[in-house]
């Protein structure tokens, strides 16, 4: 898998086409020197674990609505052709934190998780900044203006925290086959292997034992 060094690209624009070529292959690459402190990434992962360790009744107080909030285990099935109950994962969605719908975001009680909201808002802003810069580099690689993808307004991503408790039945997947919605996904993992990329042109499924895709 290719690695993309954001700082190096900014110093050597002539190499942009080579680096962005990963988007034309697997569609995956490692992003390094992205500007997000490793301490913040670790803190966000820690707070994510803290949330998913809460009792179900506490998490359900933030039940999903308006594309924000908590979805419990097996509430989604990304591959509709499969017949099992649902994907074995739970998720909490956080939407844009500065737009006119930011009030729709749902946050755990500060009495239970006192630093959760602060950490996630800071992490959101850092990831958003990295994503916006990456989108501008993709525009340049396509011979477009650097701000092409933001001419109709700023890019306002969603942050999704996911927990996979482990699969006991080989027929049940943590996340079934799918293509992500939206233009781009920045993914960080806690080092547990499991991500797979389907190379349609080669009819192959490659298991990627990734420590950190975005780290």
Automatic annotation (TrEMBL):
Coiled-coil ranges (or none): none
Statement: the UniProt record of this protein carries the keyword Hydrolase: no
Listed transmembrane segments: 194-214
Taxonomy, superkingdom: Eukaryota
Keyword Iron: yes
Any Pfam family: DIOX_N
Signal peptide residue numbers: none
Entry GO MF terms: metal ion binding; oxidoreductase activity
All residue ranges annotated as the Non-haem dioxygenase N-terminal domain in the record: 22-109
SUPFAM superfamilies in alphabetical order: Clavaminate synthase-like
Alphabetical UniProt keywords: Iron, Membrane, Metal-binding, Oxidoreductase, Transmembrane, Transmembrane helix
PANTHER family, alphabetized: 2-OXOGLUTARATE (2OG) AND FE(II)-DEPENDENT OXYGENASE SUPERFAMILY PROTEIN, OXIDOREDUCTASE, 2OG-FE II OXYGENASE FAMILY PROTEIN
Protein name from the UniProt record: Non-haem dioxygenase N-terminal domain-containing protein
Organism: Daucus carota subsp. sativus
